[in-house]
Amino acid sequence: MRLQQQGWLGIAYLVIAGCTTPSAPPHQAIDMLEKADNAFRAGNFALAQTHYESVIKDAPDIASAHFQLGRIAYRDTQLSRARTHFNAALAINPDHVPATYNLAIIHLQSARTLLAKHQTLAPVSAARPTLINVREAIEAIGKPSSAAE
């Protein structure tokens, strides 16, 4: 009797666990993802965006769709939207290296913009050596280094 109870508990656990595990994306989402990727590669970003949004509607846990939407938003200089999509990709896959990199670039651009605004609004404060060093360091990131002497 005890073994039978444990058997039913095991089956109940598997049923419950099965209900909480993520399912595979619907077949139509995979097909739409392929169409979106093809449109992106062809440079048809408006169509790619429409398809990626459809993918997310059907299968919101596909990190690559969020990542590509982030790339499209970044290309269109919609940094807030790009940040949202890169963060969504990272929420799904914390090890998504390209999303991490692109998010860092957006933060770097935001830092540059905010420091320039600070310099305009508070020139005395912005003239402090520490802030000058920070601005110079941030500006140097991404620029080609000078030739070795």
What would your notes on this structure say?
This protein is an all-alpha fold and 149 residues long. It has one domain (25-140): Tetratricopeptide repeat domain (Serine Threonine Protein Phosphatase 5, Tetratricopeptide repeat). 78% of the residues lie in helices and 0% in strands. It contains 8 helices and no strands. Helix 4 (63-75) runs parallel beside helix 6. The radius of gyration is 23 Å and the shape is elongated. The model is unreliable at 1-22 and 144-149 (pLDDT under 50).
Give the SSE layout.
Blueprint: H1 2-20, H2 27-41, H3 45-58, H4 63-75, H5 79-92, H6 97-121, H7 123-126, H8 129-140
Helix pairs in contact: 2-3, 3-4, 4-5, 4-6, 5-6
Q: Element order, helices and strands?
A: HHHHHHHH
Largest sheet: none
- Kindly state the percentage of residues in helix: over 70%
Q: Runs with pLDDT <50, length 5+?
A: 1-22, 144-149
Summarize the structure.
The protein contains 8 helices and no strands.
What key phrases describe this protein's structure?
149 residues, mainly alpha, Serine Threonine Protein Phosphatase 5, Tetratricopeptide repeat, 0% strand, elongated, disordered N terminus, disordered C terminus
